[in-house]
Amino acid sequence: MEEIGFLGMGIMGKAMAMNLLRNGFKVTVWNRTLSKCDELKEHGASVGESPAAVVKKCKYTIGMLSDPPAALSVVFDKGGILEEINSGNGYIDMSTVDAETSSKISKAVVAKGGSFLEAPVSGSKKPAEDGQLVILAAGDKGLYEEILPAFDVLGKKSFFLGQVGNGAKMKLVVNMIMGSMMNAFSEGLVLAEKSGLSPNTLLDVLDLGGIANPMFKMKGPSMILNNYSPAFPLKHQQKDMRLALALGDENAVSMPVAAAANEGFKKARSKGLGDLDFSAVYEVFKVTKPSP
Ligand SMILES: NC(=O)C1=CN([C@@H]2O[C@H](COP(=O)(O)OP(=O)(O)OC[C@H]3O[C@@H](n4cnc5c(N)ncnc54)[C@H](OP(=O)(O)O)[C@@H]3O)[C@@H](O)[C@H]2O)C=CC1
Ligand SMILES: O=CC(=O)O
């Protein structure tokens, strides 16, 4: 397959680009903080000096950026991909953003003759390392088919969801549910402990019942040990709750559970926990008010 460009060497981008390299793809990487490209370079990647330089070199470029401002910046700012994208190029944005951001990028890329696909992913650092992501693509069907060999390496399943915006919306719905579950799980762990039960036994009980799930199984043991080494940074989960709530506003969907979960993540951010794993929201529930 043609060389692939990759913008954004954060937790996810680095794991995904590394995976492409391991599977024989030629990859050119770029990151705002350039030093984060060093490890990829050691594993055979080339390094581009700007998003525009990457697009000029590569037929296909993938973006994996933190949030809407970051996703817009690599496209529209000086040195951004719009400076070089043309009818020979495809841009695939795999960041989690809202449908409006994605549509804005799509329109600009298409106006320059390029093709665009949004393809946010479900699955965290480990699935990214193992090529086990779930890819939620929407936009240009032709580009989707051309990039499938790379998606087959990055993920265990790809969905094509139709027009631009549908991938972004699906991802926000999924993460809204995940964030609400993490809040409920944290409350449950605290309730077990404060009422004299063993949190470890609670994990065993949960794992054998109808609400067993990989997230409780993976995050529970480290939460009990207060280990919040970031796989999915809490600030990004709160961004997803915020964007999902805005989607609820647009569609007049009442979302009291998600709104309460968003407050939990906001409180965690206000306590300086934004760069830790999203499971650190547990710390917010542990704090009890002093008795009067
Ligand atoms: N971690 C996870 O488990 C998952 C994350 N996601 C989503 O994937 C995306 C990336 O997440 P993740 O890798 O964890 O995040 P990180 O915070 O680890 O990485 C964010 C990346 O965005 C870059 N960036 C931030 N702001 C700008 C900007 N203004 N201009 C250019 N680049 C910028 C960072 O560059 P720099 O190094 O210079 O700061 C970095 O490369 C997010 O949208 C997240 O919601 C989706 C599924 C799972
Ligand atoms: O967006 C995060 C994830 O785990 O999926």
TrEMBL record:
This is Uncharacterized protein.
